[in-house]
Write a structure and sequence with these properties.
Layout lengths: L13 E3 L8 H4 L9 E3 L12 H27 L5 H8 L1 H4 L6 H17 L7 H4 L8 H24 L4 H22 L7 H21 L27 H8 L15 E3 L10 H7 L8 E5 L2 E4 L2 E3 L6 E5 L5 E5 L15 E3 L5 E3 L2 E4 L11 E3 L5 E3 L2 E3 L5 E2 L1
Parallel strand pairs: 3-4, 4-7, 5-8, 6-9, 7-10, 8-11, 9-12, 10-13, 11-14, 12-15
Antiparallel strand pairs: 1-2
């Protein structure tokens, strides 16, 4: 059959329709359905995209590989801003394998975990037998051991705050305290000798690299816009926000006989004449419960108590209430001149969090010729003193 001239010539492949007898008779007899003719078969081009085997194989692994490479590059770039970039990278690259959230706080958390792991290795080194160090100043290794325990506590609190999205300013405070602990420890070891000193100093330096990195990675917070406050305001609004109303009443109330709303049976009394529960302040603190969330009230009657008092880190929320800073005095006379470290010379040393004191004098009577002689040392958080006196000649308050 000829095609009209305006249509293109069909391809040469043709298909002939036959066997109309297999169709229903109504359809076979109707020319409008299937004409008995030969029609051209129009072939549409089939597009085939050839994929090279190398690309086909790479397509399944490329996204993950690219993602890992990108994260490693980002981590290396981030670590360049830290004091110890290589240690930072070695620590943070682990976040990829353990599926840590790739955010800045996730990286801070991983860095803190590395700091805790490294600091834990120092726990057994600060003893004269294992350190191989000869002390020049008495108590220098003991200082380091105590400061190290404080550092571990600071790091654990920091990690907990970062994980719970707590205040970054509190994390910064804890990490700054940890670095202060390092400086104090090294100050006491400066004059030490012995074959083990270089290795001990190297271990301390290695352990604190992750602490400094964690602090440098910590994002800055916007400064709070507080209204100006004046000390001694009539409404008592000069108290820090963390001091509860009950604690404020405890500090502001007068007289040692007031039970301050606490169970009188739980209040401890120190009296030098033997009329109280204890005759020394140190004995009362040792009796107090460890790691208590409740306040332990210790009333210290008028008198001069010749003792060095320590409030260790596990004695939390201790409250000392005197009869007045002119009549209740805790006095000792340790000094650098007598071979003590400045840290260990304190008459009263507070490492327990939540310590409160009122109407007490802390005195170091070593004298000006003895050099550093601390009356009160505070290396704990959330400490408040009210109507207290600190007397001495050099480095009287160490905080």
């Amino acid at each position: 059959q000829d095609f009209p001239p305006h249509l293109p010539s069909p391809p040469r492949v043709q298909c002939r329709l036959q066997s109309l007898q297999t169709l229903p008779s109504s359809m076979a007899s109707s020319p409008s359905h299937l004409p008995s003719t030969t029609l051209p078969l129009v072939l549409l081009p089939l597009l085939l995209i050839a994929i090279p085997p190398s690309l086909s194989t790479a397509s399944s692994s490329s996204p993950s590989t690219t993602s890992t490479d990108a994260r490693l590059t980002a981590i290396r770039t981030l670590c360049r801003s830290t004091p110890h970039p290589d240690d930072c990278f070695d620590s943070l690259k682990l976040s990829i394998t353990i599926n840590i959230n790739p955010s800045i706080l996730g990286y801070v958390f991983q860095s803190l975990r590395s700091a805790i792991a490294e600091a834990a290795k120092l726990s057994d080194l600060f003893t004269p037998s294992s350190a191989g160090v000869v002390e020049k100043l008495r108590g220098s290794l003991q200082d380091c051991r105590e400061l190290h325990q404080s550092t571990l506590s600071c790091l654990e609190k920091s990690a907990s705050l970062v994980q719970s999205r707590g205040k970054l300013s509190d994390v910064r405070t804890q990490l700054s305290a940890a670095l202060t602990n390092r400086a104090t420890c090294l100050e006491g070891l400066a004059g030490a000798s012995g074959p083990g000193k270089p290795a001990l100093l190297a271990s301390v330096a290695a352990a604190y690299k992750h602490v400094t990195n964690s602090l440098s990675l910590l994002p800055k917070e916007a400064a709070p816009n507080h209204r100006r406050r004046h000390l001694g305001g009539a409404d008592g609004d000069w108290f820090p926000a963390w001091v509860s109303r009950r604690a404020r009443r405890l500090l502001q109330s007068g007289g040692g006989d007031d039970d301050h709303g606490y169970d009188p049976g739980s209040i401890l009394t120190v009296a030098g004449d033997g009329s109280g529960n204890f005759t020394t302040v140190g004995a009362a603190i040792a009796f107090a419960p460890n790691n208590s969330d409740d306040r332990t009230i210790i009333i210290v009657r008028a008198g001069t108590y010749q003792e060095n008092v320590e409030v260790p880190s596990n004695k939390t929320n201790i409250v000392l209430l005197g009869d007045g800073c002119d009549v209740t005095v805790i006095r000792a006379r340790r000094s650098a001149g007598d071979g003590w470290t400045t840290f260990r010379s304190a008459t009263v040393a507070v490492s327990g969090e939540g310590f409160l004191a009122r109407d007490i004098a802390f005195d170091n009577a070593a004298g000006a010729a003895k050099g550093q002689a601390v009356a009160l040392r505070v290396n704990a958080d959330l400490v408040a003193l009210y109507r207290c006196a600190m007397t001495g000649h050099q480095d009287t308050l160490y905080a």
